[in-house]
Amino acid sequence: MTDPFAPDAPAGSEPFDDDEESVRPGPFRRHALWAAGVAAAGVAMGWVTSLFRIGPEEYGLPPAAPGALWPYLTAWAVIGLVVAGVLRATAARIPVYAPGRTAVALTYLGTRLSLGRRPEAPLVAAMAAAALVAAGVWCAVALHQHRRRAEA
Question: Distance (Å, rounded) from C-alpha 117 to C-alpha 98?
Answer without folding.
Answer: 29
